[in-house]
Design goal:
It contains 13 helices and four strands. Strand 2, helix 3 and strand 3 form a beta-alpha-beta unit. The protein is mainly alpha-helical and 270 residues long. The protein is 52% helix and 6% strand. The longest helix has 23 residues.
Amino acid sequence: MSLPPHLRFDFNKATRIITSFISNLISESGANGVVIGLSGGSDSALTATLAVKALGKDRVKVVYLPEKESSRESYRLSKVTAEFLGLELHILDITKAVEAFLNLLGLNYESAPKIVKGNIKVRSRMLILYAIANLENRLVLGASDRSEWLIGYFTKWGDGAADAYPIIGLYKTQVRALGLHLGIPEEVVLRPPTPDLWPGHTAEGELGITYEQIDEVLYRIFDEGLPAEKVPEVTGIPKKVVDRVLELHRKSEHKRNPFKAPFKSFKELL
């Protein structure tokens, strides 16, 4: 795939910086390695690939955490990623955990609101990843990218929770490009992004805009410093799309800065 000129970067330099970051993180923490949740998509595949390059196969554990509404394609492509990396794919079905949480709320799996159920799924997965990390003295690597982070397309304390985020400085389109450069199978890298929280779920379908548009708007505003009102005339992207991206960013600020409090110290009350 071809990136627009302003989003191109040095793939080899990026690989060196990220793998060094992961290696130093593990060395400084005294952890035995990392654990990563695979989803069958580009972000988790790239994160796992860079972790293997940094630490070697023996120190990287990949886990697939399906439940009964998960897509078979997510399972298949998670296996493709694990096989590409020469790793064993550990599979833990979380259906009973999700049902247990819903039952505590007096909700039935089939009739529960999909957002409530979906967020429980994501948070249940992270709970399991951290349990594995605790049991095996590992750190949890998150797979969030810059696009998702800036528009808040992640679940707070779910896929947005991790000990480190190796690829969070790369936009989604850049993640795909680096993944292809590193030889990750195209069917994984180019799969339409999906949180896979309900049947037929895709990120772009839920958001109503493409990642190419999202990345262009975010870059122009947050990296280039272009005023939002100038973005349509510079990029040709409709104003309503720019407004939508900015709305997503604004409404998700609480996710990026969760530790809000009325004051930092009681001394402010003296």
